[in-house]
Structures are given as structure tokens and as C-alpha cells.
Design a protein that fits this description.
Helix content is 81%, strand content 0%. The protein is mainly alpha-helical.
Length: 151
């Protein structure tokens, strides 16, 4: 599998997202920082519209299947509720900031989950999440580039 494709696929995975894909692309796949960043941003954004559109329905379906899945859904909703206050306070910018901060528990998947729990429409949530992903990509690529220059 090519390094470009692997970088894009890694960015689609929750938790890893572009925070892991950019360093992989630069350090392992030997891509330029710019190339790895662009691929990671695209890969990170691919699942987001699907998540925003279908997470609520999937959660409702999972709740009916077992007590364990009910607990999982409740845990995911609690995670979104924890981040909801920032988004409510600052609206568009709040969701963007939540996604842009390259720390564990933030990112596009969390942003999509928060948007779903808040019943935000795709047309308002997607630009905010997209901008946050771009900012996170710039931050991570700057950190990655700095590390590659030092080493």
C-alpha cells in the first residue's frame, strides 16, 4: 500500500486522525510535510459528513440491542456533553476550537459527535469542523516539521 494512501486512511481512524497521520506520512512514508498534511486533512474529513448524518440513528439502534451497547452509547454521549459547553458558548468558533486543539479527546470525530448530540445541521457543523481540521493540520505539521529539522 502506498504511503500516501496509508496516510489518508490513518487520518480517517478515530483517535489517530491527522495527529498520527501527519507524523506517519513524514517520518515513515517519506512524504513532504505539505503532502502529508493535505492528505491527512482530506482523510480526516471524509467520514465526518457520514458521522453527522447517521450517528443519532445508529445510537438509537444500538440502544435496543443490549445493555452493554446502551452503556457504550451513554458513554459516548457523556463525552460529547462534556465538550458541549464550549461549543454552546462560542457556537461556530467553539466547535472549530474543539476540533483544532491537537490533544487527546478532541478532533474531527469528537466534533462530529458533539454536533450530533447538539442536533447541529450538517451545513453549519461541517464548515466549523473543516476549519478546525485545517488548523489542527497546520499545528501538527508545524510540530512535525520542527521535529524533522532537529533530527
Amino acid at each position: 500500500m502506498s504511503g500516501s494512501l496509508m496516510t489518508m486512511l490513518m487520518a480517517m481512524v478515530p483517535v489517530i486522525e491527522l495527529r498520527g497521520a501527519i507524523p506517519y506520512g513524514v517520518g515513515v512514508a517519506d512524504l513532504s510535510v505539505v503532502h502529508a498534511t493535505i492528505l491527512a486533512i482530506i482523510g480526516n474529513m471524509i467520514p465526518i459528513p457520514i458521522l453527522i448524518l447517521f450517528t443519532r440513528r445508529v445510537f438509537e439502534w444500538l440502544r435496543t440491542k443490549s445493555a452493554g451497547l446502551e452503556r457504550f452509547v451513554s458513554k459516548m454521549e457523556a463525552k460529547a456533553e462534556k465538550n458541549k459547553e464550549v461549543v454552546l458558548r462560542y457556537e461556530f468558533i467553539g466547535l472549530m476550537i474543539l476540533v483544532a486543539i491537537p490533544l487527546p479527546g478532541t478532533g474531527a470525530w469528537t466534533g462530529a459527535l458533539v454536533a450530533t448530540v447538539m442536533n447541529l445541521r450538517l451545513r453549519s457543523a461541517l464548515p466549523s469542523i473543516g476549519l478546525g481540521v485545517i488548523i489542527a493540520g497546520i499545528i501538527v505539521s508545524t510540530m512535525t516539521y520542527g521535529v524533522t529539522v532537529i533530527v
